[in-house]
Amino acid sequence: MALIDVLLELTLVVVTMLVTATLVIVGPRNAVTALREFRWRLETCLLSFAALAVVLLLRWSTQDVVQRLERNVLRNNITSYLFEFDRALFGTDPVVVLQSFQTDVLTSFFVFIYIYGYAFLLLFPFVAYFALDEMEELSMLVLAFTANYAIGLLFYTLFIAFGPRNVDPLLFEGLLYEAFPQSRTLTNEINQNTNVFPSLHTSLAMTVFFLAWVTREKYPVWVPVSGFLAISVSLSTMYLGIHWFADVVAGTLLALVSVYIGVNYTIDGIVASARRFFGARFESPNTDKE
Amino acid sequence: MEDVAPSTTRRGLLAGGGVAAVSSLAGCFDRLWSQAETPGPDQISMSIKAVPADDDPIAATIASRLRENYSDAGIDASHEPVAKAELYRDVLLEGEYDVFVARHPGYDDPDDLYGLLHSRFVGEQGWQNPFRFTELAADNHLETQREATEDDRPAELVELLDHLLQSVPFTAVAHPYRITGARESFEVPSPPRDALGYVELCAHAANGPRDGPLEVGVFGEGLTERLNPLAVDRNRIEGLLDLLYDPLARRIDGSYVPWLAESAEWDEGGGLRARITLREGLEWHDGEPIDADDVAFTFELIEDTSLGEVEGGIPAPRFRGQQTLVESTDVVDSRTIELYFVNTTRAVAARALTIPLFPEHIWAERSELLTDRQTVAVTDDNENPVGSGLFAFADASTDEEVVLEPFDAHALRGTSDRPSVLEGFSRFEGIRFQVAPNSGAMRDLLIDGDIDVTASEIPPGSVEEIRDASDVSTTMETTDAFYMVGFNSQHAELGNPNFRRVCARLIDRQHVVSEIFEGFATQAKGTPSLVGIHDDAWEYDDDEFADPDPDILSFPGTDGSVDTSQSQPLFQDIGYNYDGGQLLK
């Protein structure tokens, strides 16, 4: 299956999930109203989206440079530390323990969660928060995602680490690519196999869950749904042999930090204070001259 | 009295306690001081580098088992997966490793060991002595087998291998089977890993004919990045550069067949030399003529990629073993060149003719220095490789494919006077390599009918699935390739041959073959195979090895797991000590 087929299937499944969830959780009336008044809503959080776009663009455009920096200059390979951390914490390999419950049904479930469930989990909050009367929550979400990517990118540059499946495929099975090798064409477009610490799958999923908790009054049903999905995504990354337990812990911490940033700061605030900071710097010599 | 007694007792107690405290403190300080001044021995630590399972599941698993066994034996061992290109850089260019596990393509001739192990290459980069191994005795053996007459050489080789079995600069684990998947209707005479494999595939009467290219499946990261035959620090498609760059002669079934050379006249009187005549009308892929100057230039370039610019030279990281056989060259005319060899025999000297030729008009300017010890020749991406092979480079504009087109001006196309392997060649219009992201995706390309044949190694775990699929088949054959565990002789402990020998024992080769290879490999057992020469390929049966059935590298344990009651005495016997299960320096 070529990349295009994989993408098409992904889109079809995720759109179906999104439509269903929108009808159930948001309600058709709210959705229609939101669509009708899309202009002011978009205008309100334009800056936040611009920030996210900048970070994503940066990530995409600097992939080659970052890889070279990561692998040829910084060269901090921490794989063996992650392996030792997991063992020291549990006395055994948590990934092996998880994989010992392996059945075909469970594997299918986790593959589904890892790819489709994850995509749905990330996209649905955009729809849900867009349908609210204020754009505060949507800005929070976008800023938290931006923080996730920005900090994640920094970690991926600083550290090289391979996941369990790459260390010993007999001990830790690479279930995802065994069950669904084509998914590699998809994940290859977005990621490299050295980007393991922290788990961005976990951090983004947990970010959605934590924000669901913050906004529990608006969408009470979304809290248990996102909680189930987020925990399943975290487990799937280990069950499928892609991440260490240490990556999942780091991912959860990253989610907490990102949500903290999302809730307590706004892009406008950050831009304004940055402008003040640089403004003060650049203007002071001028005032001296005058 | 009664009033006083307790007070004196208290005072006595205090005094006594004070003295005791001070003296015990003093004792404590003494100990601290002596510990600080002469620290006790630390645990021996080693890191094991190998590619991740995405690149090679076998190497990754062997490294992981090795880590486990070393840990059990009391060594502080860690396993560090590194991507293929970085592994080659760490091991071959920078010597930054303790132990590595890698797949070696195998030797053409036992003389390959000369380049791999001779101490004259210790300061050089690439596959020239990556172990930083320096032993006078080994140098001696490596030299005498080069110089020995054809009759004496087997005995010299036996001595060399016997020595290496004791000294273990590296150790072989197993020779994998080469598994190739192909369309049901296809015949795969030999697996496509080098130019000859592709030639035979394209020439076989059962395959094609087709107006389109032969569709070949490969997998891996960065395969299309650097098409430079001199570079070693890159992942590459096996055989691709061999197809693009032709040598003077190719080794076919053990004998050297003139390729770009029309003939080679050998003269053994007064030093070995060969007069090489090139075929008529040879051309590079860009239309420039190939002449004897290009041949001379190739030897010059490999000896010193700076072409005399730097004092002491910057040798190429590959082909040095072969190039050092040639002492000097003398261009007679545009089609004729004399090669003067070092003190050696014809059988060994002919290896120098298998180096691919480099076009002077392109590579001469690459002698420019990039850094103090690097020239452009070694680091250039060589984006549009201009070679002399039967196929010319057409396109690699995406990461997903490399296209080769037939090179019609090649001297061996459209003539009947050519090596017999070329009979029927070619039934395809070029070759197209489709690069899959992993082995599973390559397998799917085959099963879906998108490719004719696979060229990257199929992991043992995938064989069953391909066999079960319809319209595809697998072929399997033994190879010269082998998995090696390499030791860095400059590591504090690994510099000791006795220590290396015990480390080389700590992998259960039988278990590796049955569990990791799932039986698709031959265990390294006899003296030749433990040094990397397939036991079945050892042609010289007349001379006996010192220990025909060596158990010098037998595994101290069972079913892949080390038995510490067996492994600890091995280290203790060679002068090492244990403390609480930890092996000390």
UniProtKB/TrEMBL annotation, chain A:
<dbReference type="InterPro" id="IPR036938">
    <property type="entry name" value="PAP2/HPO_sf"/>
</dbReference>
<feature type="transmembrane region" description="Helical">
    <location>
        <begin position="221"/>
        <end position="242"/>
    </location>
</feature>
<dbReference type="GO" id="GO:0016020">
    <property type="term" value="C:membrane"/>
</dbReference>
<dbReference type="Pfam" id="PF14378">
    <property type="entry name" value="PAP2_3"/>
</dbReference>
<protein>
    <submittedName>
        <fullName>PAP2 superfamily protein</fullName>
    </submittedName>
</protein>
<keyword id="KW-0812">Transmembrane</keyword>
<dbReference type="InterPro" id="IPR000326">
    <property type="entry name" value="PAP2/HPO"/>
</dbReference>
<dbReference type="InterPro" id="IPR052185">
    <property type="entry name" value="IPC_Synthase-Related"/>
</dbReference>
<dbReference type="InterPro" id="IPR026841">
    <property type="entry name" value="Aur1/Ipt1"/>
</dbReference>
<feature type="transmembrane region" description="Helical">
    <location>
        <begin position="109"/>
        <end position="131"/>
    </location>
</feature>
<feature type="transmembrane region" description="Helical">
    <location>
        <begin position="138"/>
        <end position="162"/>
    </location>
</feature>
<feature type="domain" description="Phosphatidic acid phosphatase type 2/haloperoxidase">
    <location>
        <begin position="150"/>
        <end position="263"/>
    </location>
</feature>
<keyword id="KW-0472">Membrane</keyword>
<feature type="transmembrane region" description="Helical">
    <location>
        <begin position="248"/>
        <end position="267"/>
    </location>
</feature>
<keyword id="KW-1133">Transmembrane helix</keyword>
<feature type="transmembrane region" description="Helical">
    <location>
        <begin position="196"/>
        <end position="214"/>
    </location>
</feature>
<feature type="transmembrane region" description="Helical">
    <location>
        <begin position="6"/>
        <end position="28"/>
    </location>
</feature>
<feature type="transmembrane region" description="Helical">
    <location>
        <begin position="40"/>
        <end position="60"/>
    </location>
</feature>
From TrEMBL, chain B:
<dbReference type="GO" id="GO:0015833">
    <property type="term" value="P:peptide transport"/>
</dbReference>
<keyword id="KW-0813">Transport</keyword>
<dbReference type="InterPro" id="IPR039424">
    <property type="entry name" value="SBP_5"/>
</dbReference>
<feature type="domain" description="Solute-binding protein family 5">
    <location>
        <begin position="256"/>
        <end position="535"/>
    </location>
</feature>
<dbReference type="InterPro" id="IPR006311">
    <property type="entry name" value="TAT_signal"/>
</dbReference>
<protein>
    <submittedName>
        <fullName>Peptide/nickel transport system substrate-binding protein</fullName>
    </submittedName>
</protein>
<dbReference type="GO" id="GO:1904680">
    <property type="term" value="F:peptide transmembrane transporter activity"/>
</dbReference>
<dbReference type="Pfam" id="PF00496">
    <property type="entry name" value="SBP_bac_5"/>
</dbReference>
<dbReference type="InterPro" id="IPR000914">
    <property type="entry name" value="SBP_5_dom"/>
</dbReference>
<comment type="similarity">
    <text>Belongs to the bacterial solute-binding protein 5 family.</text>
</comment>
<keyword id="KW-0732">Signal</keyword>
